[in-house]
Amino acid sequence: METIEIQPLYDNYHRKIAKVDLRFKRYLYSQINWKARIIGIKGARGVGKTTMLLQHILDNFEDIDKTLYASLDDLWFSTHSLMDLIDWAYQHDIMRLYLDEVHRYEQWAECLKNIYDNYPDMSIVYTSSSLLIMDNAYVDLSRRQTTYTLYGMSFREFLEYEGILHVAPIYLEDLLENHVKYAMRIQKEMKVMPLFEAYLRHGYYPFYREDIEDFPIRLRATVSVVIENDLPAVEKISFETIQKVKRLLMIISERVPFEPNMSELWKQLSTNNELGLRMLYALDKAHVLSLLMSKAKNYKTLYKPDKIFLGNSNLMHVLCPQVDKGNERETFFLSQLSVQNEVRYPQRGDFLINDKYLFEVGGKSKAFDQIKDIPNSYLAVDDTETGHKNRIPLWMFGLLY
């Protein structure tokens, strides 16, 4: 085989890993079965997927050059194939590879299948955009890989990241039953509300710590990269459609929470229902939007959402002309609950969780009027540190993961 020059990949790998801190690890780190042969980690851009890969290398390799991290959007891959890298690694007895941004490489799925079938001693950990949904009819990786999704930081993780408080995640049922006990314990350690306000502005994406003043600019740039680079890599859409996706996002950002009149929306975008829904669902998969439905979401059968939110409160602060407090509360609640639970749009109230728990979200003076006669109904109330019975402080729903 022709000798290939691998040093540029190692140089990039060494630069990245030199900056990695092991003191804080995302919630998903301890949940991954790192022994699996092919591990896929999906997630929105900027939530810490790359850092998690590099942390795992530092935790498991005394000599980091016994493995290799490479991002598949590296210029190296413009003149070399992924299988070139795999063959080189195998010849040099490197049996564990960490591959970032695989969706940016056109034949990534076939290559992973090839590695699994033809290199039985080799294992791969890869990351991809949350946009990606594996089509098993196209290439069957389902029985060969273990996949996970990494979401942005919870309020609980933000507190740990800031070195303020370390508390284990609380199960939803436990929180509903024992929220007063947990709130009293946490209040002894800190003043909650100023920290909660800071989280709503910038705590969802770990990169805020790199330069908090430039965080809004960087987050807007991150959204642009998702639309301009990640979306075309996954959906194979035209430049014209990319411009429509941008316009769609800005229309929704000006109106959230958005209860869509689809014909009016498509008219504004000069598009049809099929393409319009594809754009909406793509932004939902990218975690830029969050589509709330009265029935289970299905990415193969696209139908009108009942309500549209931005994906998290940080996005509101950089995309919305003016942040509405009520919408910010609901956006936070939805972003935290949807990680581990099924959230639907109910006939009464704001959110139905796991077809069992009904929630209204509001400010301190919020009353039970709309849902008072419904079993398992709760209020998630802002501007309060401690709740009572079925009135639970909104910030506490940030402790679930």
Sum this structure up briefly.
The chain is of the alpha/beta class. The chain has helices spanning 7-17, 49-60, 82-91, 108-118, 155-161, 172-187, 192-202, 215-235, 239-253, 262-269, 273-285, 313-319, 325-337, and strands spanning 38-43, 68-71, 96-100, 123-129, 146-150, 289-292, 307-310, 343-344, 351-353, 357-362, 377-381, 391-393.
Which secondary structure elements does this structure contain, and how are they paired or packed?
Blueprint: H1 7-17, E1 38-43, H2 49-60, E2 68-71, H3 82-91, E3 96-100, H4 108-118, E4 123-129, E5 146-150, H5 155-161, H6 172-187, H7 192-202, H8 215-235, H9 239-253, H10 262-269, H11 273-285, E6 289-292, E7 307-310, H12 313-319, H13 325-337, E8 343-344, E9 351-353, E10 357-362, E11 377-381, E12 391-393
Parallel strand pairs: 1-4, 1-5, 2-3, 3-4, 10-11, 11-12
Antiparallel strand pairs: 6-7, 8-9, 9-10
Write up what this structure looks like.
- This protein is an alpha/beta fold.
- Helix content is 39%, strand content 13%.
- It contains 13 helices and twelve strands.
- It has helices at residues 7-17, 49-60, 82-91, 108-118, 155-161, 172-187, 192-202, 215-235, 239-253, 262-269, 273-285, 313-319, 325-337; strands at residues 38-43, 68-71, 96-100, 123-129, 146-150, 289-292, 307-310, 343-344, 351-353, 357-362, 377-381, 391-393.
- The strands form three sheets. The chain has a five-stranded parallel sheet with strand order 2-3-4-1-5.
- Helix 7 (192-202) packs across helix 12, helix 8 (215-235) packs across helix 9 (239-253) and helix 8 (215-235) crosses helix 12.
- It is globular and about 75 Å long.
- The termini are far apart.
